[in-house]
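#lab-general

N.A. 3:47 PM
ok so I finally got the sequence cleaned up, no stray characters, all 228 residues accounted for. can someone with queue access submit it? mine expired

B.Y. 3:52 PM
send it over

N.A. 3:53 PM
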Amino acid sequence: MKQSIAVIAAHPDDEVLGCGGTLARLANEGHEMHILLLADGVSSRGMPEYPIGSEQVTARNSAAQDACMILGCNSVKLLNLPDNRLDGLERLDIIKQIEDFIDYHQPSRVFTHHGGDVNIDHRIVQDAVIAACRPQPGHPVKELLFFEVPSSTEWRPPESGKAFYPNVFFDISATLTAKMKALQSYETELREFPHPRSLKAVEALALWRGATVGVNAAEAFTLGRKII
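B.Y. 4:20 PM
back already:
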């Protein structure tokens, strides 16, 4: 049965790094895929003498649109909130924007960040998504899944926060190529191997996650909630 499915992520590229292959697979299966990206992903990098301009934000937004098209998603909404400063915004304001997105698209399944990531925006978004998806009577979201983001999730020492122990895996053997192509839309965000946000490392992670469950490639998640 056709579903409306949402990805709610902090920055443009998180959606591809975390679940790009899964998005492409679900889109191929005929589901409606909608993406919400909260922060602009670049404004925190500026210096007083060299501030980040609107052209960099526009370029990142354009990359998100390109990636969305490659993965076969139906829509991507970019809020362009301050990068790496979501903890400086009113939590309720973030929750309300997520609630509006959910109310409009009525997703039954939501993918978002793991709560133990190094990046503060990732943690803020997961917390806001959980609040926006409170299982009240009639709420559309029946399943919450939390993804890993290379160069954030694994960089958090287990002793200092919540470790990522996946228990849900999507076989992306047939859509890994689409994930890697979509990731190349974010060329300026990629690094050289052995950085975990290099093409080689991202592909290696997919192959490793697949090998742990007996398939060629997979993306891994932790289950937050599933209502049956």
